[in-house]
Amino acid sequence: MEKRYYVAYGSNLNVRQMLMRCPTARMIGTSVIQNYRLLFKGSKTGSYLTIEPATGSEVPVGVWEVSKADELALDHYEGYPNFYYKKELVLPITGIRTGKIRMRKVFVYIMHEERKLGIPSTFYMQTCIEGYPDRHSDLNRTSGARSPARSATRKILALRWGTPQY
Fold it and tell me: Is residue 53 part of a domain?
């Protein structure tokens, strides 16, 4: 069976939540999606994180190796294909154990573009914020002076309280 790699940027960075949903998934590394930004969009049931193209922005992500059953569970959770669609990318993945960087084909869920911007629930916000520190120190490394994880958390908090920072 071909290995599949899932890129998490929202609540699925929260290890506890991810392992309840996908018990055979294994965190393998971290990466950054260049020229994308985080934002909240949603529906009548709530607003959730998604990503969209934005030159000069970046989104820190965790990378999970998933089984077919895990991917099906994620499809269900993410509301694929109606709420989110899947996009394949090739990213440099920094291994959690070795620190080696390897290019891997990954898939990511992106909310359909026609969804409106919104404000998430406090519970969802807390789950996402808890997830960024869970992703080990690799999400806190960057070539610049600022931390992508802290930056993403600040953006999440700013969006929550009505002061978007892009």
Answer: yes
State the CATH number of the domain containing residue 29.
Answer: 3.10.490.10
Instruction: Provide the pairing of β-strand 26-43 with 101-111.
Output: unpaired
Beta-carbon contacts of 86 under 8 Å, excluding residues fewer than 6 positions away, are 80, 107, 108, 109, 110
* Angle between helix 122-134 and 148-160 (nearest 10): 180
What's the CA angle centered on 99, arms 89 and 51, to 5 degrees? Answer: 30
28-63 residue pLDDT tens: 999 999 999 999 998 888 999 999 999 999 999 999
Nearest Cα to 99, choosing from 25, 147, 30? 30
Domain range for residue 26?
4-160
* Residue type for position 43: S
How many domains is the chain built from? Answer: 1
pTM value is: 0.80
Distance in angstroms (rounded) separating the CA atoms of residues 46 and 162: 16
Task: Report whether 18 contacts 64 (CB < 8 A).
Answer: yes
For residues 41 and 115, the answer to whether their CB atoms sit within 8 Å is yes
